[in-house]
């Protein structure tokens, strides 16, 4: 992996942007910057970044809007930079398709660890697409466990990596109930500041893509007071 990974920083506070850029360049990343939402969206769609660091409060177009618009066209990993204690920001960002978030103020070491983790996941996804198929059949739903592909009634569903990994984890363990904490640890795989709503948000997004009627799910079921499990309809 000699090729430098390209990071796009969309952040209007130049002092923050500069220090992030300085540290990422030192780590061997190729860094591009945008200082407002409009410019950021344009670069996100045209410059082909490997990961986007996206601030929430931005001139012209806020980070949520940028996130939503990028997601219409691209599955590039998005790491939202959210203000401290603004819980609503995190959940909204994840609902709009962000892959991860980090709360300001953050340490550079943590930021870089998050960036690397998210890029590794994308690389894994790309390499998985060349792997031999391993299709498991769940009625109308087919999951290719190796190639990270999901089809329903023969139609491919567009899942993010996290959504796929959660589905795969549950589907490989049919009818076993897992708590949100367990899923956070097993699927997200690193200390996630115990924000278990991340799991709920991802389940909700998965259901919207997977289920005929997401308010009466047939595949990903809730065990009230305990957690979630996968079942065949
Ligand atoms: Ca800002």
Low-confidence stretches: none
User: How large is the share of residues in beta strands?
Assistant: 15-25%
- Count of runs of 4 or more consecutive helical residues: 8
Mean pLDDT: 88
The sequence of SSEs as H and E is EHEHEHEHEHEEEEHEHHEE
Name the structural class. Answer: alpha/beta
Measure the end-to-end span. Answer: 43 Å
What Rg, in angstroms, do the CA atoms define?
18 Å
Q: What about the largest sheet?
A: 5 strands, parallel
What is the strand arrangement across the widest sheet? 2-1-3-4-5
Helix content: 40-55%
What small molecules does this complex bind?
calcium ion
Shape: globular
How many strands appear in the DSSP assignment? 12
């Amino acid at each position: 992996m000699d090729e430098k990974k390209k990071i796009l920083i969309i952040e209007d506070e130049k002092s923050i942007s500069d220090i992030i850029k300085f540290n990422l360049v030192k780590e061997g990343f190729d860094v591009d910057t945008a200082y407002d939402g409009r410019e950021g969206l344009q670069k996100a769609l045209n410059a082909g970044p490997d990961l986007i660091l996206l601030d929430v409060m931005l001139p012209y177009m806020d980070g949520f809007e940028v996130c939503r618009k990028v997601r219409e066209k691209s599955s590039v990993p998005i790491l939202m930079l959210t203000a401290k204690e603004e819980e609503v920001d995190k959940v909204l960002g994840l609902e709009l398709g962000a892959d991860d978030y980090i709360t300001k103020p953050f340490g550079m070491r943590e930021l870089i660890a998050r960036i690397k983790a998210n890029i590794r996941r994308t690389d894994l996804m790309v390499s998985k697409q060349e792997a031999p198929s391993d299709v498991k059949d769940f009625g109308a739903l087919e999951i290719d466990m190796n190639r990270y592909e999901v089809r329903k009634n023969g139609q491919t569903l567009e899942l993010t990596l996290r959504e796929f990994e959660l589905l795969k984890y549950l589907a490989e363990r049919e009818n076993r109930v897992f708590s949100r904490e367990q899923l956070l640890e097993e699927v997200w795989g690193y200390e996630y500041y115990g924000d278990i709503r991340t799991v709920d948000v991802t389940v909700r997004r998965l259901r919207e893509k997977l289920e005929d009627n997401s308010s009466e799910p047939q595949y990903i079921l809730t065990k009230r007071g305990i957690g979630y499990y996968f079942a065949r309809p």
